[in-house]
């Protein structure tokens, strides 16, 4: 029963982790060419979204736990572990590219001279995270679907 609960939780939080990442990626084509003034106004809608990072952490923990509890079966373990790695990669991308953009612009309230490069860095890092999260969700699904109760 614990495996089923953990599978459900891993699927749920990994699916929820896709939501903000996919929202950023979906908005990117409309935002990438905006004027400076419009872009900084648009960025204001993300105030408070940093709290959604908790969902990323929960998804990482849940998939790592899922890999641990399914270790008696190779495929469910490896796919859950690969999902955890994909989620971990999201943190790497965030800390290397997204966070520095946020810091350089004081969370998009201050306009540095290189704001266009920072915009590209911010937008593309979110697109990369959306793809990592989608991969993580698919891998979590594969783990759950391949598990066979003994």
Kindly state the mean pLDDT as a whole number? 96
Element-level helix/strand string: HHHHH
SS strand fraction: under 5%
Give unreliable regions as ranges. none
Q: Return the domain count.
A: 1
Count, helices: 5
Level of helix content? Answer: over 70%
- Measured between the Cα atoms of the first and last residue, the distance is 12 Å
Main sheet properties: none
Shape label: elongated
Compute the number of strand runs.
Answer: 0
Rg (C-alpha, Å): 17 Å
Overall SS class: mainly alpha
What can you see in these coordinates?
- The protein is mainly α and 150 residues long.
- It has one domain (2-146).
- The protein contains five helices and no strands.
- It is elongated, with a radius of gyration of 17 Å.
- The chain starts with a helix and ends with a helix.
- The model has no long low-confidence stretch (mean pLDDT 96).
């Amino acid at each position: 029963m614990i495996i089923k609960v953990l599978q459900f939780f891993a699927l749920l939080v990994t699916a929820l982790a896709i939501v903000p990442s996919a929202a950023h990626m979906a908005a990117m084509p409309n935002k990438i060419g905006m004027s400076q003034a419009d872009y900084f106004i648009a960025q204001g809608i993300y105030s408070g979204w940093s709290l959604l990072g908790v969902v990323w952490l929960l998804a990482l923990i849940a998939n790592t736990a899922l890999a641990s509890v399914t270790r008696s079966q190779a495929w469910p373990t490896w796919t859950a572990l690969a999902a955890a790695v994909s989620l971990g990669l999201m943190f790497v991308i965030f800390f290397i590219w997204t966070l520095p953009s946020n810091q350089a612009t004081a969370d998009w309230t201050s306009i540095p001279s290189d704001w266009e490069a920072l915009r590209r860095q911010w937008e593309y890092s979110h697109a990369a995270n959306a793809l990592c999260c989608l991969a993580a969700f698919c891998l979590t699904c594969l783990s759950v679907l391949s598990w066979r109760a003994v």
